[in-house]
Amino acid sequence: MSENLLEVTGLQKHFPITKGLFKRQVGAVRAVDGIDLNVQAGETLGLVGESGCGKSTAGRLFTRILEPTGGKIVFEGEDISRKSVTQMRPLRRDVQMIFQDPYSSLNPRHTVGSIISAPLQIQNIPTPQGLKKAVQELLELVGLNPEHYNRYPHEFSGGQRQRIGIARALALRPKLIVADEPVSALDVSIQAQVVNLLEDLQSEFDLTYVFIAHDLSVVRHISDRVAVMYLGKVMEIAHRDDLYKNPRHPYTVALMSAVPVPDPVRRDRGQRNRVLLTGDVPSPINPPSGCRFRTRCWKAQDICATEEPPLVTRLDDPDSHLTACHFPVVDDEAVAGRTPAETPA
What we know:
Layout: E1 4-19, E2 24-40, E3 44-48, H1 55-62, E4 70-75, E5 78-79, H2 85-88, E6 95-98, H3 112-122, H4 131-141, H5 158-170, E7 176-180, H6 188-205, E8 208-212, H7 216-222, E9 225-230, E10 233-239, H8 240-245, H9 250-257, H10 264-268, H11 302-306, E11 312-313, E12 322-323, H12 331-336
Parallel strand pairs: 3-8, 3-9, 6-7, 7-8
Antiparallel strand pairs: 1-2, 1-4, 4-5, 9-10, 10-12, 11-12
Helix pairs in contact: 3-4, 3-5, 4-5, 5-6
């Protein structure tokens, strides 16, 4: 087992809601409300969940782009959750981020050369063969032409712009890269190219990824372990194959049943039923008591409203399969993708 590169304990991020002339706080949006997870050196941890569950906020907390409200972030055994901007600057060499929108994350007034060379200049990284040569080598590394050095972001396609963002993240040779939905804005064919590029770079430079996405098929392809988030909480963490074959949390089962099946025969014969959740997603301003998912869960009972389930292993699960549920789904339900009411007698 590899040692943990990143450990997160009780991590919280609450955005205050203010009102009136004096900006009096009347509430808070609990975007991330106490998550516990770890990322092992050299692995890819997938972070999935529906829109608004707090995935991107969590990624920005891991890189300390956002200040945490509470909890602890430990990187290589060092607590970085309360470090100032000045104290964080040396750590930026080891922790980088790839952003979701490859155009808005690149300054349109700067050339590709100045964008990629900025981290090297800020961190005073020596370049024996010159700064321009170092940037051109990075461009070649991500599949771009060295002659693109003097071009501007608007002259590139979406996939090429994402490659520029990857080159910028790689400039400092970091240990951990948080990729916030890096392929969601790209065509399917370009998605495959970027995902393959990330995998090749991981093997070449021994990188560690936190891969944030809502496309479950992409996450299954690239991830070693997968963490499922819902309304600011982590509901389940397991190895990729174990999670996709035997999801334990009802929310994970519902997510898996929503993945399109590229097989019309299987779809037409009704061999796979959708788990249709009732009700709306609760507001992160006032989340439900107990289990966050209980208002939409078909297995909810009285204890779910009064006691929040801990993220722990179950007796019938491998040690690496963590589930935050009082009544985890049994194998028959998980495999069939059916609720008990939908299962035929």
